[in-house]
Amino acid sequence: MQTFHEAFALALSLVLSGDPDLIEIVALSLRVSLSATILACAMGLPLGALVAISRFPGRGALLVTLNALMGLPPVVVGLLVYLTLSRAGPLGDLGLLYTPSAMIIAQTLLIAPLVAALSRQVIEDLHGEYADQFRSLCLTRGQVISALLWDGRYALLTVALAGFGRATAEVGAVIIVGGNIDHLTRVMTTAIALETSRGALPMALALGIVLLVLALAVNAAAQGVRHSALKHAHV
After folding, report:
1. What is residue 144's predicted lDDT score, i.e. its pLDDT?
2. Would you state the pLDDT for residue 159?
3. Does the keyword field hold Repressor (predicted)?
């Protein structure tokens, strides 16, 4: 129990004192995770909507693949990104390995299938309600996708939060491509792993508490925005 008491006390002292290292790690964590979530949504939402409204041979196999990619092992993604960005890889000349950009790429590849698969179900349900109206209006596929994404924006916010949640919890892939370099690529999850390996359990638990509070704060803010928007929509 003493370890937990030390962790809570340390977490509180780190936050209240505005510890520079903590602020730096938190800021980088949010930058990487939010950037990856935005990119994944930019790719995954249109893809999910396209699959939802389309009927073509092999669609069932594509759905199975999307669902399978939701559980893609992070270390596998990290290894593939590492090989691609390494000096011997096709994008090695860009010099992105062991940078925040590499971490964003890895997290984007991890959560894009999750966003696509979850949004596909949301959009498919909406499309079933409006399919006859869309046909009567002779809308193009792009117009249908735009209308469905806008109409389902509040439900899709939950999908984005699921992607953000996975991004903030990611450690395997970001260590492989980022290297956990102090003051450069160290984020909350990799810092927790490092402190645990050092045996500094109070610091590791303190960082975990801060990470949990941040995740709860982001989710609470998003839910507040959604509730407010729905309230105004019914007025």
Report:
1. 87
2. 87
3. no
Which pLDDT tens digit goes with each residue over 161-172?
A: 888 888 888 888
Query: Quick one: angle between helices 20-53 and 100-137, nearest 10?
Result: 30
Domains in the chain and their CATH numbers?
A: 21-187 (1.10.3720.10)
Taking the mean position of all CA atoms in its chain, how far away is CA 210? 18
CA distance 174 to 171: 5
Closest CA to 77 of 175, 162, 168: 175
Tokens 């340390």 locate to: 10
Residues in the chain with pLDDT < 70?
Answer: 1-3, 225-226, 228-235
* Strands of 37-93, DSSP E: none
Three-class SS state of 145? helix
- Rounded Cα gap, residues 95 and 82, in angstroms: 11
| Interatomic CA distance for residues 17 and 148, integer angstroms | 46
Tokens standing for residue 193: 């792993």
